[in-house]
Amino acid sequence: MKKYGPAILIVVFLFGVWELASRTVNLPFIFPPPSGVAIRFWELRETLLFDHLPPTLAIILIGLAISIVLGVALAVWMAVSETAERAFYPLVISSQMIPTIALAPIFIMFFGYGIWSKVVVTVLITFFPITVNTFDGLKSSSKELRELMLTMGGTKKDIFLKVQVPSAKPHFYSGLKVAVTLSVIGAAIGEWLGAQAGLGYFSRRMMTQFDGAAVFAPIVLLSAVGIVLFLLVKVLEKRSMKWRNKE
To answer: Taking 80 as the threshold, does the pLDDT of residue 34 lie above it?
Structure first.
């Protein structure tokens, strides 16, 4: 608890400033206090948790799964093939040059208001950090270790599995930790622009009703989802890289 004490104090201070500022301005429909958001969240808890959280979670998890599979596969391909690197790496970089919010309506036109338009938005946001970080990790493996493996009769497969993959693991998890937080943003953006359920959709609907506290309530839940996913990745990282924890 002492480790996170300063962060907790800062959060409490910021919420205190927010509460005071909101009560001073006294515009709860536009700038609700944290206490008002908490009360509204409790009033809407069943709707948020059982009606709108599951669709958002489905988008996040499906989008992350697709990004992990495609991102790691492409990173491995680029790492073992210079032709693939020259062909795809510029495309991966350029995919981030176009604002996602500008593409989201196009995806909705193509895939409709169902889950897949939001999944595509989430994949577009989360694919980049996973691919680039994994690729950098594979390419950053020790040249001396690779040469040592060759002198000891190791094959390319041995070098890849015993040198490059362990080298890439920390980079992969770094990319994944970024991706899980971005996945929440991607799902919310997709739902804001076109959906029939979900936390982003609910927040947008409440905005049209000028219910400021209800706009913030699903945002709080989205933040909690992002934090939980981040912590799960941290746990998975520690379990799969016990050797790193002993350093």
So the answer is: yes
**Contact call for residues 59 and 190 (beta carbons, < 8 A):** yes
Angle at 164 (CA atoms; ends 162, 166), nearest 5 degrees: 65
Task: Give yes or no for a contact between 77 and 84, defined as CB atoms under 8 angstroms apart.
Answer: yes
In this prediction, residue 234 has a pLDDT band, given cuts at 50, 70 and 90, of: very high
> Is 1's pLDDT higher than 80?
no
CA distance 107 to 110: 5
pLDDT of 36 over the 90 cut: no
For the domain covering 55-245, report its CATH number: 1.10.3720.10
Query: What angle is formed at CA 179 by the lines to CA 176 and CA 180, rounded to 5 degrees?
Result: 90
Determine if the pTM surpasses 0.90: no
Token pair, residue 196, equals 């029939």
As a whole number, the mean pLDDT across the chain is 85
Is-contact 163 149, C-beta < 8 A? Answer: yes
- Measured distance CA(38)–CA(102) in Å, rounded: 33
* Both tokens assigned to 41: 């969240």
Give the model's pLDDT for residue 211: 83
First-last CA distance in the chain: 23
Tell me: pLDDT of 201 over 90: no
Token pair belonging to 28: 């709860």
The separation between CA 30 and the C-alpha centre of its own chain, rounded to angstroms, equals 28
Residue with tokens 């989360």: 126
d(CA 112, CA 114): 6
Select from 232, 213, 216, 225 the least CA-distant residue to 186: 225
